[in-house]
Amino acid sequence: MRKIDLTSFQVATSETARDINRRIVLDMIRTRQPVSRADLARLSGLQRSTISVIAGQLIEEQWITEGAFGYLPRGRKPRFLHLNVERAGIIGINVRPTNTTIALADPNARFIAQESFPTAAEPQAFIKDLCERVSDFIKLHPQVFYEGIGVSLPGRVDRSTQRLVFAPNLGWRDFDLKKPLERATGLSVEIENAANACALAEIWFGQQADGMRDLIAVTVSEGIGTGIISNGQLVSGSTGVAGEFGHVSINEDGLPCKCGNHGCWEVYASNTATIRAYMQATSSSRANKLSAVQRSSDPTFEDILRLAEQGDVRAAEVLDRMAHYLGVGMSMLITGIAPSSIVLVGEVTRAWERVGPIVKKVIAERSPTAPVTRIVPAEDAAQPRLRGTIALVLQKHFGAPSTA
Fold this sequence. Notes:
Nucleotidyltransferase, domain 5, 21% strand, alpha/beta, 5-stranded mixed sheet, Arc Repressor Mutant, subunit A
């Protein structure tokens, strides 16, 4: 039972009730389509007349559309309702230190088109480039009715201002992407930390979507992020920056981290850490292990995955090391929060047959509550970060309204 916060609350007006009913009906259509008005009335408990009014509004707003007629032995044939995937669209933007991806998806999070480009190192140059590219991207699809833009960032976002607070792997601080992007496109923009976006993607579209009330998404890329869902809600803390476990020190005398701390979890278990460990292990012989195309540059994490699969001993060793430290950090999460599931997101899941058993072994040794938590690798090909950006926009229309 939740205690009512008498310092910040919203009384239930008739408008509040209409908003809640609308969201319930819209989400029922999304999850049960095709569905008739009569079925919606039966499932929701709302009056048929209320359902008809809400359905009419949603059709007018182009969220839903009418499909085929159903069959009844007598009486009026029901008309099935669907999400309007032909017209309604959402722009998703996933920002990473090396490249940024823009995608167009329908309300079912099916991607229609996408493009990627290098992420500029300087934030002002980046936002200028991004605004131009998104504007051009929208013009390429004039038939779409755009519902908004979702953006995931490898850093923490202030909940009230929607400004990027700090992204260590980008080197950006106190930066506003929201307002320039809204001015350039005329669309509403929702911005969130990438791990939080991945957690939302799981409860909206993923393997955990049906009835899952608590989980942690752990994103492993250039750094490590954690997005926490508790009692069906994203845990954001007082300012929106909760969950920064990638920058919790697991060795206070350890290597320096870009955040300014020493021995952070991501210094040992991220893609960047694994690349560094491989370069140190191979040193002079590294060039002989890489293709001619790669010899002029540092190896990528994909190179290490490929080399380990081909039997490269050092690549296999650094992946094992990465798996060990992933287990160390996850055991901390399990002991402290005891989620039903931890969903691992990132390229490392491609090597799950090798990495998974090591992660689970370390967790079993270190966490007394480990048996209650499932460790689930997200399918990397499903692009969970991008799907998370679509969830950011959908939750504004389909989720419970804010009471703040």
